[in-house]
Amino acid sequence: MSLSVILITKNEAANIRECLQSVVWADEIIVVDSGSTDGTPQLAEAMGARVFSHDWPGFGPQKNRALDYATQDWVFSIDADERVTPELRTELELAMKHATADGYFCPRLSQFCGTFIHHSGWYPDYVLRLFKRGKGRFSDSLVHESILLQGRSEKLKLPLLHYSYLTMSDVERKVEHYSDAAAQQMFQSGKRTNLVRAVASGAWAFMRTYVVRLGVLDGSAGFQIALMNMRTTFLKYRKLIALNAQREG
């Protein structure tokens, strides 16, 4: 069975080569770029990808744009900071060959500043990534989008590697980016909040990560992840307060 790999990018020159190298065996690779200034589109084209440029409408809508360019029987969605291991490739190929489901979840093993994380709510972190074309679309969420599958799904065993946070500067950049997107999504849904809820939700995000989800077993990395989740949660509510105040002012 034939496979389209799809991904969206913006300034991913540090990641794009290794990402595409891990899926170079696919029948086609579709990249939708949103204004990269670091040569990402050129690097992707040099790796054999079909590259398209679009504005940025949010994660879900952008991934649907990439999906619309796919032409093969199956689709695998990957992010630029993820890698398909040779072992996972074999499992994906077997899944497509036997096709006992319409979509397949991969466990995702993520790295945080040099450490692979096995707790903190990060693993196995099943994500639906392989599906029959025509059987799935991405949700319209601006952040934390998901694939809406029509049909039966199964779970694979081998992990997709995720190099999500290489440095603390990556952490800060993503905290700002995700809190901005989450606040905007809540604002568009008409949600309101207050400072008390922002503080309480941030504190709970820390406790859930570090205690309930056993982040303490991940050592210092688990503590840093709990702090990151606390800060992201607090900021998204604080930014929602600001957006509502701006509209009313």
Describe the secondary-structure layout.
Blueprint: E1 3-9, H1 16-21, E2 28-33, H2 40-46, E3 50-53, H3 59-69, E4 74-77, E5 82-83, H4 86-98, E6 103-106, E7 108-112, E8 115-116, E9 127-132, E10 136-138, E11 147-149, E12 153-155, E13 160-165, H5 168-188, H6 195-212, H7 219-248
Parallel strand pairs: 1-2, 1-4, 2-3, 6-12, 7-13
Antiparallel strand pairs: 4-9, 5-13, 6-9, 7-8, 10-11
Rg of Cα set: 19 Å
Q: What fraction, in percent, of the residue positions are helical?
A: 40-55%
Helix count, DSSP H or I runs of 4 or more residues: 7
> How much strand?
15-25%
Q: Sum up the overall morphology in one term.
A: globular
| Overall structural domain count | 2
CATH class of the largest domain: Alpha Beta
How would you spell out the order of helices and strands?
EHEHEHEEHEEEEEEEEHHH
Mean pLDDT: 96
Per CATH, the superfamily of the largest domain is: Spore Coat Polysaccharide Biosynthesis Protein SpsA, Chain A
Distance between the termini: 57 Å
The beta-strand count equals 13
Summarize the structure.
This protein is α/β, with parallel strands linked by helices and 249 residues long. Helices cover 43% and strands 22% of the residues. It is globular.
Describe this structure in words.
By secondary structure, this protein is α/β, with parallel strands linked by helices. The protein folds into two domains: 3-164, Spore Coat Polysaccharide Biosynthesis Protein SpsA, Chain A; 167-248, no CATH class. Helices cover 43% and strands 22% of the residues. The protein contains seven helices and 13 strands. It has helices spanning 16-21, 40-46, 59-69, 86-98, 168-188, 195-212, 219-248, and strands at 3-9, 28-33, 50-53, 74-77, 82-83, 103-106, 108-112, 115-116, 127-132, 136-138, 147-149, 153-155, 160-165. Strands 3-2-1-4-9-6-12 form a seven-stranded mixed beta sheet, with helices on both faces. A four-stranded mixed beta sheet has the order 5-13-7-8. Helix 1 (16-21) links the parallel strand 1 and strand 2. Helix 5 packs parallel to helix 7 (219-248) and helix 6 (195-212) runs antiparallel to helix 7. The mean pLDDT is 96.
